[in-house]
Protein: Pyruvate-flavodoxin oxidoreductase, putative
Organism: Entamoeba invadens IP1
Amino acid sequence: MSLIDGCHAVAQVAYYMSDTQFIFPISPATSIGETCEEMSASHVKNMYGNVTSVIEMESELGSIASVHGSALTGAIPSTFTSSQGLLLMPPNMFKIAGELLPAVIHVASRNIGASGMTVFCDNTDVLSCRSTGFCYLTSNTPQESYDFAVICYMATIEASLPFLHFFDGFKTGYALQKVSTLEPNDLFGLINKKQLEKHRQRRLSPHNPTTQTLIQCNDTTFQAMERTNEYYNRVPEIVQNCFNKFEEKTGRKYNVFDLFGDTDAEVCIIAFGSVCGTIRNLLLEENKKLVGEKVCLIEVRLILPFSVEKLIEKIPKTTKKIVVLDKTKEPGANGEPLYQAVCSALNEADMRIKVHECRYGLGGKEMTPSMILSIIKNIAENNKLKTIFTIGIDDDVTHLSLSYDSNFTMKGADFEVIIYGVSGVPISKTILSSTTKEEYVQGFKMIDMAKEAGMVRNDLRISKREILSQFEIEEADVVFVLERTQYFVPVLKDIKKNGILVISEDCESFQQLSLETLETVLRKNVRVFFKKMTTEDCVKEVLKMRTGNHSFDEADYKGGMYKQKIEKIIEEKRAHKKVVNDKYYTDIVLKIENGHGNELKVSDMVPGFYCPTGQSQFNKRRVNKRIPHWDINMCQQCSTCSIVCPSSSSRIFALDVDHPVPDEFKMKNSTKGNYKYRVQVSPEDCMGCNSCASSCKSKAITMLEDDDNYEEQVRNWKFAMTIPDFEKKSTIEELAMNKPLLEFANVCTGCGEMASVKMATQLFGKRMVCAMTSGCSSVSSGVIGMTAFTKDANGRGPTYGNSLLEDNMEYAFGMAVSLHQNREILVKHVNTIVNNKTLRSNIGKEFAKLLEEWLVVKEDGDKAEELCAKIEPLLKEIKSEEDIVEVQKYAEYFHKIEAWSVIGDGAAFDIGTAGVDHVASLHVGLKTIINNTQVFSNTGGHHSKATPEGAISKFASKGTDAVQKDLASILINYGTCYVAQCCVQANPEQAMKALIEAERFNGPAFVIFYCVCVDHKFDLHNAIEESRLLVQNGYWNLFRYDPSKKGVGVNPLTLDSECRIVDFSPVIMNEDRFSLLRNDDDKTKQLVKGIQNKMQEKLDELVKQTKN
């Protein structure tokens, strides 16, 4: 038995039973590919006696195309994907199925994303592709995921049809369970060798030439498609035979449809996926009184082809009503796929049974025992129940939802524990792997979308009997809180009465716990222990507690002693409850922050899910105890501390020298202007990353514990928020005093990405339309409740949109074309006015002159902005003439509003590179910021074409030998694009110049920023020093290429970095991603020498071009 999650269970089977695998990272399927790549890199042999070829592709489209080609040349290929990744595959899926080829896609199912994007699971992705001809198998536990992965390979070879195996992504895929596995020889023994050899012999080969696929006309296509019917008709029996053969080998029994519960049931539930475990738990003998009805569950294993005959065999003859559970939504359809399939089957069998559909679980919404009980009760007793209804939400718009008892809770195992904190530490696996062989275990991990300050919750179950439940723990015996970042979470929401809360802090932590947590302590009589604990201590305690013991003593138990203190704190918290004058925040976001997002009603959602900007300013989580302290006497006003701050929590504020300020708000007279200034931190938003301190050359910033003057800094920040915006920005010092229109972004500590976007908003934020690619860019700035783009004092600021990872350049290009067109309409009407004597006379000389001036300077954003301040009030006064009315309609385009695409490595170098290439070839003025971390950061640090040679990354566990893509050179070769390489952390002045030049350039502009990342494997508290080192040693060259200079006889290339001799060795020593290059053998030395020579050649070429 191995303690593994669903994704790793699938990976083990897929590796051993495949010849080839073609992968691309997408959450939550990514870890399947990671495991397979590591096995391949370690030369593990598959069941055929070979090392499986595991190749990373540029996109899911490339992956499935390679699967197609591989299958057609005799291999058994696989790929793994989720969500939008799967939706890139259907054209090839149709071909694979139409050509009757064996292949397997494993899908960690996930919501596709419509009005918003989510990584959590439902079945909208897989069920959107059901017409492709792939056969569908679904599993609901890690053990089933392993078993059904095996069945897929058995069946795909036997049936000569492709199979898609899916499971709930962040539920089953990341759930830990003890899984019984087979040896590769045992797996090989399960497949049909004759059918395998038949497939191998059918491969395309010049020794047996054939043509595949022919171009067909309307006289043959229909017949060719119908010719495959017999293959699909055989599939249900083939799959059942595979199940039977598997049972003979393992003892684990499955059927195409499995029946659980009463065989004489009157209410029949038909479902698939992880919800089935929760239903089965309710249908146990001991829960019959609770259920109160004769109920059965038919669990669907084979979704497609859907066997009418086998379903009808399973439906009890006593059935009066059926309810079908569908975890997807097809807007406008008369019911979802499983419901339609069941209705069709009953009609074909001429059975007259009332069928209802319950839509549930979209976007990963929990399905609890209480909800299932409500469904059963309503199906059995409510004759007015709508045919199609929902559960788990309050639909006060279309009134489809069923109510349920939210106070009803249920245990899912003998011992249940919740652990908050320990992000990135496999604490659940450590605990569960320490249990006895006889104990059943289960582990779930839940997160929110906050990167650094987010909720991290581990649910663990340990029991003496099989654990069926697949719902989140509702009655925990004990809750551990191991990190202070979790204090904002209502950590006791799911604790049982008289349960235990263990806090790894001193007893003063009561002050920082949420109001709801404190109220629960009293309401549920929770025993509270305070004891500083390591993760190892927590492991030991959980293992003790599962047997009813613990090592806490009365010295740790403060519950009784502090009961009065808790009551007093509750009273104070109620009296000083945070009041925010923002309706969206108080009505929507605050509920989400307090763990009550599930209680929001349908009417609370804005159609299209448009959200206001600037919500991150209210999201105060006080992540770090150490914050920057400013030494007023040491400061030389270089302003770098504020420029490099990734979260915009360290800012510089300026006032007239005579402006009064509070005594504690100390300010220093500037030597660079007639004003005084102060460096002020927001202590509730600071990430403690040390970027400000390490960037300060005068050592005026130091990181200190915040306890001593925390309240004073909160007051100072509050006063700073009343200081008017600074308008000048001709120097880096002046720019730093401009309000960033991207603030408190949802970033990792020390992240290098958002500093570039923040700088752009300080320069042009009032006129930016931002297309943020899916990934770190969108998660950092566009999570509900944490929207980081904000407005200036006049209500203007960047507006935000997000499409996909693979198409952000085309998405932004569409914006740019539309914005340009709208401005041209304005220009047309302004020209009409200034060239028409009557119209000029009607609007007056002053207005006409301003319009003429605007036509001259309109492409200069700052000058156009100055004229707008004069034009707009005059324009409002004029109320006649058609052209004037049209000008008023498009008046916002007097400002130079521009589209900005913000993309990362995946969108620039890999899956979206075609879009970059296409935009570069055109002459539309789209501006692009490329944040280059040299990996796919948001998926967890996966190999990209931006990854440097020799670096370790996921999908390149032994270090990549692929050539690094030089995107800047490719773009420069067009000769028509502005291109710059920058690094804000190393040289903010050069970055500022590049952004200004890019914005002014008449055509496509690309500014590529090197960004440090946690996946570079070094301490990001040293991010500034490392960034400077990379530039100083020639690893990252700073330059600007402006082709407009060629027209005036000036060299278009300016090399801004001073390094001329590359030294790669300090980078190798500092960053563990290059640890394999530290080996002292001759082969490694030659590799390092080769890499450094390539870097030197690139630098020499740049130097040469500057002299041409």
Remarks:
- The longest helix spans residues 808-834.
